[in-house]
């Protein structure tokens, strides 16, 4: 089985542990942690999935999965609150502080809301970015995303 993200062998690799204290945070695609438990069956329990994601260096899950299962992962001894939870919170909150998210209503983005989403100007900007970002390439050989041994399992 091919491992999701970098969930295997990451201790001490810069993706988990103390050396991953950084000036940014890593967020998942929405519900990706739930997907590798519910759909890919990468782990036996949801707590194992939460622990694997946080140990791999994930700081924030776009979805409810970590919020629902991380506390039980800590209680079951699958995850260290100090080594993993505190680090994920520090990474996330540091970026939020740097962005001024705790500065109150003086923050330039403090009053954004639904009226600011999908307005025509933003839709045009997204279309322009997509149009300018199109790249055509010719594939000479079939792409191999994983080594042949990994895909045979």
Number of helices: 6
Number of strands: 0
Query: What's the SSE pattern?
Result: HHHHHH
Helix content range of the residues, please?
Answer: 40-55%
Counting helices, strands and paired strands, the structural category is mainly alpha
Average pLDDT rating: 79
Distance between the termini: 5 Å
Main pleated sheet: none
- β-strand percent reads under 5%
Radius of gyration: 19 Å
Unreliable sequence segments: 8-19
Query: In one word, what is the shape?
Result: extended
Folded structure, characterized:
By secondary structure, the protein is mostly helical. The chain contains 6 helices and no strands. Helix 1 (32-38) packs across helix 2 and helix 2 (46-55) packs across helix 3. The protein is extended and about 50 Å long. 22% of the residues are buried. Residues 8-19 have low confidence and may be disordered.
């Amino acid at each position: 089985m091919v491992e999701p993200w970098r969930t295997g062998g990451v201790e001490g690799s810069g993706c988990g542990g103390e050396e991953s204290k950084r000036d940014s945070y890593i967020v998942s695609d929405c519900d990706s942690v739930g997907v590798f438990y519910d759909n890919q069956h990468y782990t036996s329990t949801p707590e194992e999935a939460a622990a694997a994601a946080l140990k791999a260096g994930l700081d924030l899950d776009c979805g409810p999965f970590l919020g629902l299962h991380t506390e039980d992962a800590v209680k079951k001894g699958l995850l260290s609150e100090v080594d993993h939870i505190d680090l994920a919170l520090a990474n996330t909150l540091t970026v939020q502080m740097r962005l001024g998210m705790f500065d109150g209503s003086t923050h330039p983005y403090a009053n954004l809301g639904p009226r600011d989403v999908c307005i025509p100007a933003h839709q045009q900007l997204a279309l322009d970015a997509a149009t300018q970002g199109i790249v055509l390439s010719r594939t000479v050989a079939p792409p191999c995303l994983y080594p042949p041994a990994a895909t045979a399992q």
